[in-house]
Amino acid sequence: MLPVRSVLVDFDGTASPHDVAEHVLEEFAHEDWRALDDALDRGEVGTYEVIRGQAAMLKARDEDLIAFATAHCAIDPTFAPFVRWLREHHVETTIVSDGFGFYIPPMLATVGLDDMPVITNTWSTNDGARISFEHGHPDCVGCGTCKMRAVLDARARGPVAFVGEGTSDRYGALYADVVFAKDVLVRYCEADGVRYLPWDGFDDVRRALESLDELPGPVAPVRCPGWTPA
Predict the structure, then answer these.
(1) For the segment 114-152, what is each residue's pLDDT rounded down to a tens digit?
(2) Relative to the CA of 68, which of 12, 27, 83, 193 has its CA 20 to 30 Å away?
(3) Which CATH number fits domain 6-18+74-211: 3.30.830.10, 3.40.50.1000, 3.40.50.150, 2.60.120.920?
(4) What is the DSSP string of 181-230?
(5) Rounded to an integer, what distance in angstroms lies between the CA atom of residue 195 and that of residue 189?
(6) Are 175 and 8 in contact (CB under 8 A)?
């Protein structure tokens, strides 16, 4: 039996090795979308503001956005076999993404994972907005999709593994029982005292889960460092 009951996986840069949102913005946005990313890196804004602002810059038809994403970006070739292996062990795998969201199901469908659970922001035209935040925290607007909340909900079913690489993944990693980190997430884990396992592809994650005798356990601060009152 594997040591976890759920695996939560980031999408951009993780399930897909591409930053799909960045590719889409590069192709279709005609405003300075990078200025919002720079403000996020400086800690001046949260991902909620970045996503909302950048989504408003995408004026193309949804079908054109999806067609571009599926044609130019791919799922990590080790991801679908990893998910199927977890299913054989009755471990649920869920995508948790604080991105645009619209391209995730079509991209998963290209590798036969169209039935995979996805927690992400909702692409929308409601009230003229391009995006809504159905999976946010009720009292915090630091992020669009609250990865802390996603991990805590999953932990109600048993231990959770979290796989990621980016800034918003920090807030899931703090509350997971075991964390697989690369790129920017490594720096956050080291700063936050999160014990993590490095990974490159999902074969690395699989081997680690097969061999783990003991889970590091969550750091679980009382207040998430991304806390931004609504």
Answers:
(1) 999 999 999 986 555 689 999 999 999 999 999 999 999
(2) 83
(3) 3.40.50.1000
(4) E-THHHHHHHHHT--EEE-SSHHHHHHHHHH-SS-------SS-TT--B-
(5) 7
(6) no
